[in-house]
Amino acid sequence: MNAMHEPPASAPQATRADPRKMAFEAHKLGKRLHREVGQAIADFNMIEAGDKVMVCLSGGKDSHALLDILLSLRARAPVHFDLVVVNLDQKQPGFPAEVLPAYLQGLGVDFRIEEQDTYSIVKKLVPEGQTMCSLCSRLRRGVLYRVASELGATKIALGHHRDDMVVTLLMNMFFGGRLKGMPPKLVTDDGRHTVIRPLAYVAETDLERWAQHRRFPIVPCSLCGTQEHLQRVQVKAMLREWERQYPGRSDNMLHAMGHVVPSHLMDRNLYPFATLEPTGVPDAAGDVAFDEEPCAAPAASARVQWHLGSAPNKEVER
User: Fold this and answer.
1) Percentage above 70 pLDDT, the chain
2) Does residue 4 lie within any of the structural domains?
3) 221 has a pLDDT exceeding 90
4) What distance in Å separates the CA atoms of residue 76 and residue 84, rounded to the nearest whole number?
5) Which has the least CB within 10 A, 26, 29, 165, 285?
6) Per-residue pLDDT, 191
């Protein structure tokens, strides 16, 4: 009699993602990113007709996504503007100098690789174990502003996103004693350049997913990546944990940055507390200090089309 054997148990099959679902989610993400960037550009009049926008490409996910989205928006924007990409080769050891030029050539976009050994300067002047970001940032800004002048760029686009702006606000509050964030648009200290941050409304987690989907050639920074003890890294981790426990908190904080009520803060330069007197006239928008005010989520901003017209404490920078 032949022995009867039980068929071998089949090995558990790995869960395979549905390609159709993945494509749908990527399409939805792309639409959201383009909408948020277009909204920020329109809200703050970041790009105008005839602008030459210098996109600063570090090689990280944020600047890659910025360039990718601006190239797409340019193709269907209501006005004409030019893009030129600038990468600063800071001569960091092991930096793959050939990666970004090859990538940019493949995109067919105008670009310039600026070589400046700021790495050696930072390593020489900053003691071991100290934060390098402040000096590195100043040196990098100086080079980029010079290059912007040489290229005739009218706008300098940086890849800071929503989380960067909220983290900077918290850091200035916690460590600088100032209610100061990171603006979506500013004029440089020398008055010569306009800096824009088109990713101001974009969540970092969305940029991470977009970078994976688009398979950008990411080039890590050997200076920033080795400073896990930085206050910025710690505050960012705290914000991520808050967002995990209370989804939407980062959006609420960003919303608050655009809805300031000087009469309910303490800055005497913004509100005349010293000369404040009762008028005897009710004010519907007045003090609610003794009222039970609900903590409601901010109203969603209206979606508009991108219409471009002419138109003593230490502070935290980035």
Assistant:
1) 78
2) no
3) no
4) 18
5) 285
6) 92
Residue 194: name the closest of 60, 311, 292 by CA.
Answer: 311
Over residues 165-193, the mean pLDDT reads 94
Q: Is residue 316 part of a domain?
A: no
In a domain, 3, yes or no: no
Q: What domain count does the chain have?
A: 1
pLDDT in tens, 245-256: 999 999 999 999
213-226: average pLDDT: 77
Task: Provide the residue range defining the domain that includes 48.
Answer: 29-261
CATH number of the structural domain spanning residue 212:
3.40.50.620
Residue 78 in domain = yes
Would you state the pLDDT for residue 4? 43
